[in-house]
Amino acid sequence: MEKAILIRIGEIFLKGKNRDYFYKVLVKNIKNKLHKYNLEIESSNNRIMITSFNIDDEMYIIEDLKKIFGIHSISPCVKVDSNRESIEEYINTLKINTSTFRVTVNRADKRFEINSTEYSKLLGGIILKNNHKVNVDLHSPETEISVDIRNNGTFIFDEKIPCSNGMPVGTSGNGLLLLSGGIDSPVAGYQMAKRGMCLSALHFHSYPYTSVQAREKVIELAKIVSDYTGNIRLYIVSFKKVQEAIHEYCNEEYMITIMRRIMMRIAEIICKQNGLQTIITGESLGQVASQTIESMTVVNKVVENLPVLRPLVAMDKEEIVTIAKKINTFNTSILPYEDCCTVFLPNNPIIKPKLEKVLIEESKLDIDKLVSEALETLEILDTNSI
Amino acid sequence: MIFFDNASTTKARKEALDVFNNFNENYFYNPSAIYKNGQEVSKLINKARADIINCLGGGRFDNFIFTSGATEANNMVLKGLLKNKNSKILVSIVEHPSVYNVAVDLKNQGYNVELVKVKSDGRIDEEDFLSKIDENTALISIMHVNNETGAINDIKRLVSLAKSKNKNVIFHCDGVQAFGKVKVNVSALGVDLYTISSHKINGLKGIGGLYVKTGINIKPLIIGGGQEKTLRSGTENTAGIYSFATTCKLAVSEQEEKFAKTTSLKDKMIKGLEKINNVKINLPQNENVSPYILSISVLNGKAETILNMLEDKGIIVGNGSACSSKHKDNRILSSMGIKMSEIEGSLRVSFSSNNTEEDVDYFITEFENVVNEYLKSTNRRN
Q1: How far apart are CA A281 and CA A276, in angstroms?
Q2: Which sequence positions of B are flagged as catalytic?
Q3: Complex ipTM, two decimals?
Q4: How far is A334 from chain B (nearest CA, A)?
């Protein structure tokens, strides 16, 4: 008898001809995530099974598996030999802690001598004999004992742990997440990775107007998100000179609009240089002044050839916070270090900017120079080497 | 790097480190052990205790409890002297978080806690102080020297005022920014309890303690093996304690000389700062302010940015105001009536005798540059 973990895959089944590709990426992602443990990953016949691990690692392995997109659920199980004696010996030891149960036998190995229905009844009888206060309930049992009989062994489990679902990271292209230190952008990254997108991230800091802690906080956030996504390459750019220039030359009402348009220009260049296919932001419609549809329209105008994805656009703050808490970014996001400098923030930012006026304001700046100067400050970090 | 954040911590002096290392090397035994080596360590700890009591102005052998630092000692006072929820606790509004936040916590638990106001010079408002003492007042905690402004309270006078109104009141004083820096004599001050810390006076971190006058019964925060006469369980930080005693002896013996040196550094600093536009000294500087701490504000400035800019010039200072837009306020400065526009740009410059006149000169030059640069880039010119 040994322990194993059965992995069920989610949506990948729907993917028809590409199924094999998705499956291979998922197995690779599982291998990467679990590389720190001594274990074996068996993948055959649409099943992935983790075996031969140290029992002390089991809970950590389960926690790691819960963070891999593409896994629907997992079941920690006991593996016994596929013969009646071994199966019944184990079933004989089971103690049921609920008042109802059922046994479900799946006989994948059709050579097994009794059919599934008959064997379910037989095993249920053994359990009833050993557990006097329990009853069988075939329709809505509180405990379901599953017995999966295969030619390489029989897997017995009673627990199904829901996992992250989604698609394996790496199967849906790659994108550049604009990562601030706030609550929203890490969640936006998480949501895109859940659809299989591989993430890089771009952070703008304004040292000395913002603190070193604010920068460290963003690195920490990228690290937390990378627990779900695998390595995130983090691009860090100083926005100091851009902010100073806008502050000096432009109408302060347009500060935020122009800032965002310059951030997008820089993001697009980084995407092009690194083969990234889209820009991802954590904007949510109407949340703050810069997140109106008019503002998004004006900001989008500078990105010529890439889609700008806003996975949170229709979400309430409360929904975003719920996810941020679930993925453990919330407590870091609310640390009190400014992610964006408050020194220059206008009192009354324009809510519905007009492109013509923005262009007039921008004409006061040498934008190409500011963008290239900002890019000169570029630093690159990988979360897996921090 | 020029370090003007000595109120947050100080560089450990060589003597403190040497004693610590030597003690760990040769006297690593557990002082609770019954074998000779252990007993020898026990004796050395009690010698350290006696030395520290001497430094505080004398007292009985058991008048001092070693703790992990001042925060623990302050917590012990506020939590360990409570009897019932009717008895009143009085703390000043400008206390260090290790007193203030404990008091707020006790208030939230239903204890009767009142806050004493300060005047614009950062010192206790005596009228308010007296009006809040009544027959139910059980404990008063007032700091000796304020950690952000340097304001020195007249503890001796406050104790006598308090006791004349309620002779049973227990008076605690957080002396972390005072001991070793200004003259301290617990008997002369008349306090019942007095907190001190090692790392603020060029000693090591992780050790501090509480003077407890004979007859004051305090309950322990930490219960276990019964060390420190059951008042603070846990195997003693033996080398830390011994090093602390050395630090205290040196600090007290050098106190006057260092006080004079720091006073002259601070005076020089103030003279230089007065010539810089848009810089304000936050409280009147006189004999009621510690020469070790100077609170200043850059008008219309943001403390964090200025602090970062100074760091880039090789100068470290403390920030008076928290950095977040959500937590811009500063409890201490706002209680003195200082305007928000000044609080946001408030900095704490704190000295040690390791600082030199050259440090001050360099600071003045670079600070003026930073303030001008800051105001230039943040003021609109169009």
Answers
A1: 14
A2: 323
A3: 0.76
A4: 11
A197-210 pLDDT, tens digit each: 999 999 999 999 88
Alpha helices in chain A (DSSP H): 19-33, 58-65, 84-91, 116-130, 184-194, 212-229, 240-249, 255-274, 293-300, 317-326, 330-333, 355-362, 367-376
Q: How confident is the model at residue A361 (pLDDT cuts 50, 70, 90)?
A: very high
Cβ-defined contacts of B152-155 (< 8 Å, 24+): B152/B123, B152/B178, B152/B182, B152/B288, B152/B289, B152/B290, B153/B123, B153/B124, B154/B123, B154/B288, B155/B189, B155/B190, B155/B191
CA–CA dist B216, B20 (Å, integer): 31
Please state, as a whole number, how many other Cβ atoms lie within 10 Å of the Cβ of residue A222: 28
Chain A nearest-CA distance from B8, in A, is 18
In this structure, what are the phi and psi dihedrals at residue A254, rounded to the nearest 5 degrees?
-95, 5
Taking contacts as CB-CB distances below 8 angstroms, the residues of chain A near B327 are: 336
Flag whether the pTM goes above 0.90: no
In the three-class reduction of DSSP (H, G, I as helix; E, B as strand; rest coil), residue B340 is classed as helix
Q: How far apart are CA A163 and CA A155, in angstroms?
A: 20
Beta pairing, strands B208-212 & B193-197: antiparallel
Nearest to B308 among A207, A244, A249 (CB): A207
Strands A143-150 and A153-157: antiparallel
* Cα radius of gyration rounded to whole Å, chain A: 27
Per DSSP, the three-state class of B50 is: helix
Burial class (CB in 10 A: 0-12, 13-18, 19+), B326: exposed
Taking the CA of residue B314 and the nearest CA in chain A, the distance in Å comes to 14
Q: Is the pLDDT of residue B322 over 90?
A: no
Burial (CB count <10 Å: 0-12, 13-18, 19+), residue A353: buried
Question: What are the tokens at A279?
Answer: 């820009």
A360 touches chain B (CB under 8 A): no
Name, in order, each residue with C-beta under 8 angstroms of A152's C-beta and a sequence gap of 6 or more: A42, A82
From residue A198, give the alpha-carbon distance in Å to each of A72, A99, A279.
19, 46, 12
Please classify residue B161 by burial: count the beta carbons closer than 10 Å to its beta carbon, then call 0-12 exposed, 13-18 middle and 19+ buried.
Answer: middle
How far apart CA A287 and CA A343 sit, in angstroms, is 21
- pLDDT value at residue B292: 98
Residues A368-374: contacts with CB under 8 Å, at least 24 apart: A370/A241, A370/A242, A370/A245, A370/A262, A371/A262, A371/A265, A371/A266, A371/A269, A373/A241, A374/A237, A374/A238, A374/A239, A374/A241, A374/A242, A374/A262, A374/A266
CA distances from A321 to A184, A289, A305, A328, B371 (A): 8, 19, 32, 10, 39
Q: Which residues on chain A are in Cβ contact (under 8 Å) with B311?
A: 208
pLDDT at A238: 96
Q: What is the pLDDT of residue A226?
A: 96
